[in-house]
């Protein structure tokens, strides 16, 4: 049994004795509530119904209304309140897009704040801007271009922005009906390395535990993950975990203030005095996580803290893994990790003394060229103690967006079919039989490959639902030039983005999308803990001619392939969910979700429960891994890209309320600042072969030789060719030279 939280107030976990943290730097969540009321004042009843009845379209906890399945009480965060206006804002006057030159100086935030996209619009090469067209003209134009080319020269992409399971499923089926596996979604640049590593080592491809396992476990470890910033609803879980005696530890390149302490507005004790979260921070170099974990494992094994019964009976490869660890010297592990042998021992002792532990990680682990191996290193650590498949234990790649988990599971991936089945001849034959039309067995282009194909003139049609490639991918200049070479670009979204305004190769078509709350009959999403949740349609105002993405994809495919149109049309979404349940056995039960509150957790509370691993031999697999040699050349720094006050690439404020850092801030160790003869606020230039970035340095608790800049601004420094070997995830880190900006204020 997990320990229960203590109800009485406990000064030992308070962040400050100052009431309400007066004078401290932290988000004013009450002000966020006031702000949300003000900006949505023209649609307050509708806004309230969305918050009170809809499933959150923000981070991937999946609160239904303002409740969830982990804790009782009110669950509402500032991320969701900031996103609310996207669902309530009116449409903009389409005449605004008649001359896009007038919008060239607008930021993405300004474009987004213009309002909702109301009608299909078209711009041809040579036109100053867009004109209003009918849905028939738009779909006929797109279908005609697709028929005129070959399927391998078309590409379809879906963002994670509130995207739901039904849209993912319909889009990938439509793409395959049109003859291609060139369909991908935002999950690839988030947790595709996690999916791959978990599948090959444990036989599962998702988080193995539930959020309830955080509260009362012995040890809760966050590695390259900042939930206080990206999943702020979880700070309630962290507060109650502390009240239950859980030790919280963070391994990261920066001592994130929000992971150290937070004032949780809906808990009176924390609202007044705050809550101290992490008891220990272990700072590592950018890319030094694996070396730190290897040092930890050396200590665990040397001291006999590992669970020999578990490794002997339920795993393979432990002896090989142990033998390889012995070849790694402490000097090498200290140099690569940036941490000391004593610090590794301190963490190892915590792990060794714990009977139960949960490991949580995010893009600080995955978005590296060795992302898959980073995840395997965490899995190795958990397997050493059998921290999987039982209460209070687990491996959790925490999701940042409400729609991401279902994206890959619905098969909206260039490399897998629905249910995670690899693209090969056997599975293509199976899908052909299930769907009643031929499905190709050729792996599709992932997003980075599709942009390269566009740059080389090998892509004729690009259909993007949401997203903004010019902001989320490395080397934005290259991306912009590539997009401008595509003869037909189709952008379906709820608002205007900068990539829509790039010059047409020949034609650009804009399609207005509904939000999840506007879809007739309601939809479903899958959250981080594998919970499939029904989000009902919310009655209220509707925008122009906006249509659900799932419907548009299937109608487009029916026009491209009229001979199989009957295989691509559904009476309603209930019928579509019936098919999902048949095609994806894991999702059996989705067909029964019909009203607010309906949900189920596929796989149950714990995957691999009772140490039953769905692998070929029923055992988990240790991985022999070599830490990356990330030694710094003379005069260089490692730089990582970080998030501020934003949702994905949607920047909401110039200043991050948690760190106090503005968008141009370059976080730097105080020793490095002194060595360069700099002071806080000095402007510098970061340079490498990919580009250069100007910003202002500020001292921060970060390892010497390491820097952090905001994303997406720092994408100019990223090498577009650096990707992980299996998932193809871009590396959002780089090596840079630093120069003091002369003559620039």
UniProtKB/TrEMBL annotation:
Domain Molybdopterin oxidoreductase: 116-558
GO cellular component: membrane
InterPro entries with a match to the protein in the record: Asp_de-COase-like_dom_sf (IPR009010), MoPterin_dinucl-bd_dom (IPR006657), Mopterin_OxRdtase (IPR006656), Mopterin_OxRdtse_a_bac (IPR010046), Prok_molybdopt-oxidoreductase (IPR050123), YdeP_MopB (IPR041953)
Keyword Iron on entry: yes
CDD domains (UniProt xref): MopB_ydeP
Protein name (database record): Formate dehydrogenase
Keywords for this protein: Iron, Iron-sulfur, Metal-binding
SUPFAM superfamilies on file: ADC-like, Formate dehydrogenase/DMSO reductase, domains 1-3
A Pfam family it matches: Molydop_binding
Every Molybdopterin dinucleotide-binding domain range: 641-734
Molecular function GO terms recorded: 4 iron, 4 sulfur cluster binding; formate dehydrogenase (NAD+) activity; molybdenum ion binding; molybdopterin cofactor binding
Segments crossing the lipid bilayer: none
């Amino acid at each position: 049994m997990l320990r229960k939280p203590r109800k009485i107030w406990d000064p030992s976990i308070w962040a400050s004795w100052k009431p309400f943290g007066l004078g401290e730097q932290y988000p004013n969540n009450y002000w966020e509530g006031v702000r949300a009321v003000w900006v949505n004042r023209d649609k307050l009843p509708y806004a309230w119904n969305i918050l009170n009845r809809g499933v959150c379209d923000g981070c991937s906890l999946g609160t239904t209304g303002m409740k969830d399945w982990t804790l009782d009480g009110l669950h509402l965060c500032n991320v969701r309140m900031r996103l609310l206006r996207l669902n309530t804002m009116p449409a903009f006057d389409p005449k605004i897009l008649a001359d896009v030159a007038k919008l060239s100086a607008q930021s993405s935030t300004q474009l987004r704040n213009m309002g909702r996209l109301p009608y299909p619009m078209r711009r041809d090469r040579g036109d100053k801007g867009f004109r209003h067209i009918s849905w028939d003209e738009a779909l006929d134009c797109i279908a005609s271009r697709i028929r005129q080319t070959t399927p391998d020269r078309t590409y379809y992409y879906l963002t994670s922005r509130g995207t739901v399971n039904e849209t993912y499923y319909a889009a990938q089926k439509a793409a395959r009906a049109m003859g291609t596996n060139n369909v991908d979604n935002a999950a690839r640049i988030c947790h595709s390395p996690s999916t791959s590593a978990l599948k090959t080592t444990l036989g599962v491809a998702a988080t193995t535990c539930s959020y309830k396992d955080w509260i009362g476990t012995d040890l809760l470890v966050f590695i390259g993950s900042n939930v206080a910033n990206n999943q702020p609803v979880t700070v309630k879980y962290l507060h109650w975990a502390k009240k239950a005696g859980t030790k919280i530890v963070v391994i990261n390149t920066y001592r994130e203030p929000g992971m150290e302490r937070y004032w949780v507005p809906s808990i009176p004790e924390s609202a007044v005095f705050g809550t101290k979260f992490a008891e220990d921070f272990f700072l590592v170099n950018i890319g030094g996580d694996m070396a730190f974990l290897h040092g930890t494992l050396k200590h665990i094994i040397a001291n006999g803290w590992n669970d020999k019964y578990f490794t002997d009976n339920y795993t393979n490869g432990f002896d090989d893994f142990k033998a390889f660890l012995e070849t790694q010297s402490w000097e090498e592990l200290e140099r690569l990790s940036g941490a000391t042998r004593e610090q590794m021992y301190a963490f190892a002792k915590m792990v060794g003394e714990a009977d139960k532990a949960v490991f949580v990680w995010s893009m600080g682990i995955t978005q590296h060229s060795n992302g898959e191996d980073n995840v395997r290193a965490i899995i190795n650590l958990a397997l050493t103690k059998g921290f999987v498949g039982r209460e209070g234990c687990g491996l959790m790649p925490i999701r940042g967006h409400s729609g991401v988990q279902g994206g890959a599971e619905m098969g909206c991936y260039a490399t897998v079919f629905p249910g995670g089945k690899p693209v090969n001849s056997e599975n293509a034959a199976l899908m052909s039989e299930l769907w009643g039309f031929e499905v190709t067995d050729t792996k599709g282009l992932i997003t980075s490959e599709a942009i390269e194909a566009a740059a080389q003139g090998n892509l004729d049609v690009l259909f993007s639902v949401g997203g903004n490639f010019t902001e989320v991918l490395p080397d934005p200049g290259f991306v912009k030039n590539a997009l401008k070479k595509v003869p037909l670009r189709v952008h379906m979204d709820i608002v205007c983005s900068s990539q829509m305004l790039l010059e047409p190769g020949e034609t650009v078509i804009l399609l207005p999308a509904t939000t999840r709350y506007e879809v007739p009959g309601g939809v479903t999403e899958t959250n981080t803990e594998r919970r499939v949740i029904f989000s009902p349609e919310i009655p209220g105002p509707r925008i122009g001619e906006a249509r659900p993405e799932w419907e548009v994809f299937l109608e487009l495919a029916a026009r491209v392939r009229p001979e199989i149109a009957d295989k691509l049309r559904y009476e309603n979404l209930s019928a579509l969910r019936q098919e999902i349940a048949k095609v994806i056995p894991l999702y059996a039960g989705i067909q029964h979700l019909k009203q607010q509150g309906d949900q189920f957790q596929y796989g149950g509370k714990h995957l691999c429960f009772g140490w039953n691993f769905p692998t070929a031999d029923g055992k988990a697999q240790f991985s022999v891994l070599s830490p990356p040699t990330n030694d710094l050349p003379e005069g260089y720094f490692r730089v990582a890209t970080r998030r501020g006050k934003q949702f994905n690439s949607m920047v909401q404020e110039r200043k991050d309320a948690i760190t106090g850092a503005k968008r141009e801030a370059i976080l730097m160790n105080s020793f490095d600042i002194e060595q360069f003869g700099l002071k806080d606020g000095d402007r510098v230039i970061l340079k490498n072969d990919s580009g250069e970035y100007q910003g202002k340095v500020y001292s921060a608790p970060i390892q010497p030789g390491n820097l952090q800049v905001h994303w997406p601004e720092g994408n100019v420094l990223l090498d577009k060719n650096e990707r992980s070997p299996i998932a193809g995830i871009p590396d959002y880190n780089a090596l840079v030279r630093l120069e003091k900006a002369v003559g620039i204020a």
